[in-house]
Amino acid sequence: MSTHAARMAGSWMICCSAWLAVFAMTLSGATLLAQDAAVADPAAAADTAAAPSAPAAPTIDEMVPKLWMAADTVWVLICSMLVFFMNLGFGCVESGFARAKNCVNILSKNFIVFAATAIAFWLFGWDLMFGAGDGGWFGNSGAMMVGGADNSPAMGDKYVGVYSAISWANVPLWTKFFFQLVFAGTAATIVSGAVAERIKYHTFVLFSFLMALVIYPVTGHWIWGFGYLAKEWNFWDFAGSTVVHSVGGWSALTGAIILGPRIGKYTSDGRVQAIPGHNMTAAFIGCLVLWFGWFGFNPGSTMSVAADGGALASQVAVNTNSAAAAATLTATITAWLLLGKPDIGMTLNGCLAGLVAITAPAAFTNVTSSLIIGAIAGVLVVFAVLFFDRARIDDPVGATSVHLVNGIFGTLCVGLFTTTDLSTTVLTGPFGSAAAGGPYAGLFFGGGTKQLVAQLVGVLLVGAYVVPVSAVCWLVLKAVVGLRVSPQEEIEGLDIGEHGNEAYHGFVLARAD
Length: 513
What we know:
The protein is an all-alpha fold and 513 residues long. The protein contains 16 helices and 2 strands.
């Protein structure tokens, strides 16, 4: 070691020693001062010694309600995050089913749609959906934004506030809001795939905002906000075959019709031209993410695991998985028979169709019925894709076939496969009880047609509202800001025209014959 380095090391050691000495002297002095004060004023010392200790630990009776609420809250939040994660699945499925030249555009739409929905649902959507208005056509708490009178997590008879329709859930208000928000975002995302590869970017963003304002929350109030359909018809949709998927599907259908087909989709004599997706790996990953996310979508709709130890959530998870598995197989077989090959696009959409179909009856039926529901959904989606193609309704990803057709089918399944009469179901919890009710037994389980008729009325009424309202939104946007990109942009690709970017910059995309 050099002389200079040795001197530096010695200086640091001296400094450290000095600081330690000062600290020790300060600590010793403080101790001596405290001792002197105690001798000089024994009464003060006695008062200090007698000062109250830390609060006593809460009793078991005090802790149980809090732990119960905490378990439910964590469950609902985790399931909400799984549903939020489904945005990745939608982005991958839609971009994979589309052409490479539109990949950036589709990914960007699937990213920004949730942001637009989040703002709109917080501003107006939540209040229209869950604000006071039992049996009505829309809710109204008087506060517009989230934050009306509410004493959640109080339930049922102990609840005081303006969101009584969701007072059966034993969780705080913001937990309820976050769970419902991710569902609203899912409904808007469904539209993206059906209008892909030819819609203007800013027009789609504006439509997503409008959907969360005037479409989704209104029909949502009828069903989940204890509005007209729930109160007057005992209409049931456990996790959203109609509330989320059919609403998104109807809006997607009107958008696809008003936009018209992509250039090159149909020949001059009306023949269908296949436009293959560019990345089946992305589509596969996306579908698997959606399957995974559905375990938050459906089981999470129990919004509780503490009351029954998670028994219902477990049954819903197995029903969900069973329907998806059956639909995957039947869609593959159906496509194989009709098209001569086991088309992977049909396989993936079959899985999603099964998931959509089981979403409404997932809590009301058994595993055997779930397998039957899924098996039928897998067949339906293949025929629906072929039907829409022949009807010259261009849907690049099959969103209408998956979400609309099977959303309707799943909703009707409540009236067919509900295993027992649940209409008097009462939920109980530490913060009160709520008579949540449920559907009547289905047609195949001795309940007659009572519930089936209610479900059919709901399907028709929701379609009768969403189709004209969404069409008006599309047409207004078309007149004000334009709806479709120019033919040149469409041919070149929306990635360049709308974003000035490429998903695969530097790659040469060519097909070897």
